[in-house]
Amino acid sequence: FPSHDRMASEGKGLGHKFLRHIEKVKVLLHCIDSTSDDILKDYQTVISELQTFNPEIAQKEQIIILTKSDLISEEELNKKIKLLPKKIKIITSSIHNWDQIQNLKKLLSSIK
Q: Is 62 helix (H, G, I), strand (E, B) or coil?
């Protein structure tokens, strides 16, 4: 999403078209870089933008995919997972981990 001075929910840039498009989806997939210094803030920034545009979007089913999980320790990854909302499914993913990619594929194929 654009910086806070140019919010997609305010009709700025291509973000507004994207937000209108996601009104139609059943599940929101949030890809958050697991190496981020503040993954909770990253998540909250997106949710805030969604709520500003249309509060109903933020009520949809959500899945958080923590990407680049191979770049941090399992201990650090688990600490970060605990920071995120408990009611949301959280999975980890790395392009270097075949099992995680297969789990992601299985999860995505199960969404109806």
A: strand
Alpha-carbon distances, residue 84 vs 5, 20, 26, 57, 61 (angstroms): 26, 26, 21, 19, 15
The pTM of the whole model exceeds 0.85: no
Q: pLDDT of 10-60, one tens digit each?
A: 555 446 677 777 888 889 999 999 999 999 999 999 898 888 888 888 889
Ramachandran angles phi, psi of 45, nearest 5° = -60, -45
CB-based contacts of 108, cutoff 8 Å, min separation 6: 29
pLDDT tens column, 71-93:
999 999 999 999 999 999 999 99
Give the neighbor-by-neighbor strand order of the sheet with 61-67: 27-33, 61-67, 89-92
Task: Tell me which residue of 103, 111, 112 sits closest to 65, measured CA to CA.
Answer: 103
